[in-house]
Known about the structure:
single chain, about 270 residues, mainly alpha, MetI-like fold, 2 domains, 11 helices, globular
Amino acid sequence: MLVHSRTGRWTAWTLFAVLFVPLFALPLLVIVAASFATHWSGAFPSGPTTAHYTAAVRGESLQALTTSLVTAVTASLVALTVGTWAALAGDALARAGGRGNRALRRTVDALFMLPVAVPSVVVGLAVLVAFSQPPVLLNGTRWIVILAHTVLVTAFAHQSVSAAIRRLDPMYEQAAAGLGARPAYVLLRVKLPLLLPSLTAAAGLCFALSMGELSATMMLYPPDWLPLPVLIFTATDRGSLFTGSALAVVLMTATLLALLAVSRVRTKASYR
């Protein structure tokens, strides 16, 4: 920590514990405790059981988890591709100079940030209205859910990569170009490898956001493409709190495992 005195460190850790435990750790611990309970009439849950987890990893619950994973991976990859392309294009416009290029770059940045500036339920409604009629009819298919998730997370990928590009030292690209490397070679063998830690971080963020997305998904999902957050909401809305808690723990665990895998890729890239 940046606090050098012993008293200051103890104060900082105490303040962290006072703020972190009630606001973040305790609610998660309550969910974990509820996922193993059959009754909760007192201060603590009772009737410990693992039946909720047995049901959470089979049948409809397992299919919903698979649906969430496929949706999140697909949306993250598409969002990372589009966001990276837009960030590189914006960087090229910035280097070209000129008032028109700067205005175009600001417009592109604003368009990519628009889904973040409005509630996700509005994005879901916009996608539903836009793709419920020919020539592009996606309503009632899994693709409309994936599209909505992609729209919602692309802004985070674009902003993460844009920030990383601004921090890059241009000397690497200039040295490669000075040695006769073509622009495509500089991009693929110099620039993108330097951006790899930021790309993996952006992919992890997009994946986590997509796994937990509910508002837009509730408006769009078809019966054969039920993501896990919707199943959790449905279970708790019916009063099955303990089942919903077990499903929530499964969702958190799957997301954390995926983020840990991404962090290892990022660590190796940073080492390189």
